[in-house]
Amino acid sequence: MRTARLTRPIVLAAATAAAAACIAPAGAGAAVQHVVQPGETLWTIAAANNLTTRTVAAYNGIPETANVVLGSTITVPTTAEGAAKLQEAGLVAAPAATSPTAGAAPRPMGGYTVRQGDTLSGLAAGSGVSVAQMAAMNGLSPDARIVEGTVLKLPTGAPQPAAAATPAPAKKVVPAAAPAPTATRVGAHDVQHIAQAAGVSPSLAAAIGWQESGFNNAAVSSANARGVMQVMPGTWDWVQRNLAGRRLDPNSATDNVNAGVLYLKHLLQQTGGDENTAIAGYYQGLGAVRSRGLFEDTKRYVQNVQALRSRFGG
């Protein structure tokens, strides 16, 4: 098990309110800008993001041995972006398409982008839940008017609305709800430290965090999940009321991890420590796992997370 120690999160120097509304695909995130701090090297920046020095160097078009300058800006890519750059530069071979450890993150369950004419009540009725339930899940008021392009979570297993067959709006809208996506990255050690303090396997929590967002707190999925641990607004509210024991900061990447880890711990308790079922519950929802069994995407998600654990010392 990798030693758990708290490291300083890598934070964008020029975070703006507009950045909070950016959509980043779950499990992939997006490259972020990092301003070099005192004592940092290319190696420490890469290590904090679970990347190799070669990957960060190639992505920035500099030699692996380059000395980074205090105050300069380095672009930190996601794993997928870094791998693509290494392949483009001829530094590594393209991975085999059938590689079991290179599986892409399954699409978020229940993700839907609002089309013109959609209403919260109509979507709730089509999903077989009340307006209040649909609103709570997404951090909305029951009488909220949803606008075209809003990303929402529909109940797991609910049929897609008929409008889903039409092209989704190009502009995505993230509902104003906690937790807020902020332009912040954390390192694996941050997630592992929080998990260890909560009595959760550090490697398991880190693997889920990486699978969900690449440790990118700006990530917002097509199902309205946010931050490092891709916490839904409804889940955030439930964790705050039932598990947290203190006020969680909705703008904090660290507290996004705290919320995700507390929820993961709850799932492990509910499943008697069965890690695979808890992982499945984190993705599909434990109620749906118990009533419907594991969907194929859920099986792939569990396999991906378990495969990632060795990367984080477990």
From TrEMBL:
Q: Which InterPro entries match?
A: LysM, LysM_dom_sf, Lysozyme-like_dom_sf, Transglycosylase_SLT_dom_1
| Gene3D superfamilies named among the record's database cross-references | 1.10.530.10, LysM domain
Q: Keywords of this protein's UniProt record, alphabetized?
A: Signal
Return the Pfam families for the record: LysM (PF01476), SLT (PF01464)
Location of the LysM domain: 32-76, 110-154
Q: Which residues form the signal peptide?
A: 1-30
Q: Where are the transmembrane segments?
A: none
> What's the name of the protein?
GH23 / CBM50
**What lineage does the source organism belong to?**
Bacteria, Bacillati, Actinomycetota, Thermoleophilia, Solirubrobacterales
